[in-house]
Design brief:
Length: 204
């Protein structure tokens, strides 16, 4: 099945290049409902890091209970649901975007983060794996692997220059491959190829 959705670059790209990939804020964003336990990273969060969870969903209450149980409430902030128009503003407050999906068909949020100059940590689920260039636009870890996730986060947090390079590469990757024009042209090409193939099989 052809899948190549674009992201709204007009929404996420409106700041000069020199502003992208700024480092030093030490904030991470983790997608709510993408199923890694807060307890798995609680010790890590106590080391002067802040976990900011943006969004809403059926797992939010579970995550809030995990935060309370793990005694890391001072390190975790739940923003809740936000209008899509201010997503770029929120993303620009972070250093790293984390999406630990067990299953995902594509990953528009990952591309939005890349467009905002953020390196990403994602799982090897089909969608994120397809759009993330490992060690270029971010780091890919095995699904549900806590050790690999912690190692990836440690590496990015301890290496701000690498974060910056990955963030800049990720932004260029989005500009090169996921604009509306690029995606539309590829969609048209795929549709034409399908029509031509079907016509050759059944010319009448």
């Amino acid at each position: 099945m052809f899948k190549h959705p674009a992201i709204d670059l007009a929404a996420v790209i409106g700041v000069p290049d020199e502003k992208w990939g700024e480092v030093g804020k030490a904030y991470i964003t983790l997608k709510v409902g993408k199923k890694i336990r807060i307890e798995d990273i609680q010790n890590y969060l106590k080391e002067k890091l802040q976990l900011v969870i943006v969004g809403d969903g059926p797992d939010k209450k579970l995550l809030m209970n995990q935060v309370k149980r793990s005694n890391i409430a001072d390190n975790v902030k739940f923003v809740g649901a936000v209008p899509h128009s201010i997503v770029p503003e929120i993303l620009n407050e972070f250093d790293i975007f984390v999406s630990l999906s067990r299953q995902e068909s594509f990953g528009v949020a990952i591309l939005e983060a890349n467009a905002c100059g953020l390196p990403v940590v994602v799982t090897d689920a089909e969608g994120p794996l397809e759009i993330t260039v490992h060690k270029k636009t971010g780091l890919v870890v095995k699904k549900e692997s806590v050790p690999e996730t912690v190692q990836a986060l440690s590496y990015l947090i301890q290496n701000p220059d690498i974060r910056n390079i990955m963030g800049q590469y990720g932004r260029q990757h989005v500009l090169s491959h996921y604009t509306w024009k690029k995606s539309l042209n590829e969609m048209i090409f795929a549709l034409k190829a399908t029509i031509n193939r079907d016509y050759q099989k059944n010319p009448g």
